[in-house]
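Progress report, Aim 2. The chain analyzed during this reporting quarter is listed below.
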Amino acid sequence: MQFSEASGSTWEHAMDNLYSFVYRGLLTEESLDKAGRQRRKHFGAADANQLEKTLSFDLLDHDCLATAKFMSNVYSAIHAFENMVRTLVAKAMAEHHGEGWWSKVPERIQKTVKTRMEEDAKFRWHGAPGNSEMNYCDFGDLSSILATNWNVFETLISNLEWAKGVLSTLEKSRNIVMHGGGAGKRRY
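Predicted structure tokens for the chain:
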């Protein structure tokens, strides 16, 4: 099949645009790297192997370790979801209330968070969960923040009771996984 002259020139023009776009993207990447851009953290197999050596995995019980490795996948999913919800809540509250949005969080949660942040400041070597109050909230607190500020979230989440149910169910699973429990293996 041959291209006509018109379609050939269109093809060449499209390829020129594509090459130009890709080249500009590569130049942008290079410039950002030279400017000191911080790339996202990637944790690969070599990193995992090094960490296992550092933590003396070879001295640990193999059955407990196998369960823990299985649960690490469940942990990853729960951790990612939990932190996505935290981000959603913080962004929605900030967009609606501005910089002072934290004052719209229930006082009980504010007090607990303040205490936790003060305790963490005493043990800096341990590492903090983050620099935001949201990182110090219990997962269950997110439902309370949604409920007390429903006007902020009703356009994002259509049904409060559904959201509370999902978060409550996930909190139960989260607590089992995060506190040494295991999830049953199911074959599908």
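Residues 61-178 form one domain. Residues 1-5 have pLDDT under 50 and may be disordered. These observations will guide the mutagenesis work planned for the next reporting period.
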